[in-house]
Amino acid sequence: MGQRKRKGLPIHGWLIIDKPLGISSAKVVAQVKHKTGAAKVGHGGTLDPLATGLLPIALGEATKTTAWAMDGSKTYTFVIRWGVATETEDAEGAVTDTSDVRPTSDQVEAALPHFIGDIEQMPPIFSALKVDGERAYKKARRGETVELKPRKVTICGLKALKYIDNDHTEFEAHCGKGTYIRSLARDIALYLGTVGHIAALRRTSVGPFEINQAISLDSLNDIGHNYAPNSYLLPVETALADIPALPLTGPQAERLHHGQTVRVLDAPDGPCLAMADGKAIALATVENGEVKPQRVFNL
To answer: Is 277 noted as a catalytic residue in this protein?
Structure first.
């Protein structure tokens, strides 16, 4: 019996989706897979169903670079509703506390520097973090006690964008990996002597990807199996923008592609993206001029 062929088309690259409200990241991946016919699809950083915005989708060989996309910094806009705390720290959860205190714009502006830089943050109990081998949110939904530990996160920038009304303020945060915006909103409110939760959340950048590169899920209906690669896909190496490129000759690229080490004089030590004829060959590391492949691309 012949070897079973893998179902799906060999489509490689990044498709940037503007995720709508109320749908999970996993369902977006399923829709992209169905609409494009790609053999392999994954995402570069989960968004909660109640969040909207940029969701990078990796197709084919781009799935080998998702770790770099997920490790990149992210930008969010979000609205805090003052005076109401919820169990999930967003608009979905039951109310757990209320307060009549509403911060003034001057008080908000004075508080924000306290949250910029390396800070300690307690993740929300309704999160995907694992506790005793199980997702925290599953334990929380059953009413079990969830014990999480605070961890350090980096907030690169934080500013108030709009004082919508007495109960709502819109912010923008530029942050590092592992930051929970729900926790940030909760902590800002507590620092200001009140309570609060996320009323709206939108992601506008992930690593090198920007929201102006995104297409809507509705646009997938216009994508045919031969149309997507030429019209919407970004190259596989887009997620590796911060890694220096190393040009190789044809013979060098051939050897590296087959898992062999090649020697490149004057190549700086460290990680690199090996390229030949404008095409990504492999993620590699260089040590004393020896280039060793780590993840080889089959493009």
So the answer is: no
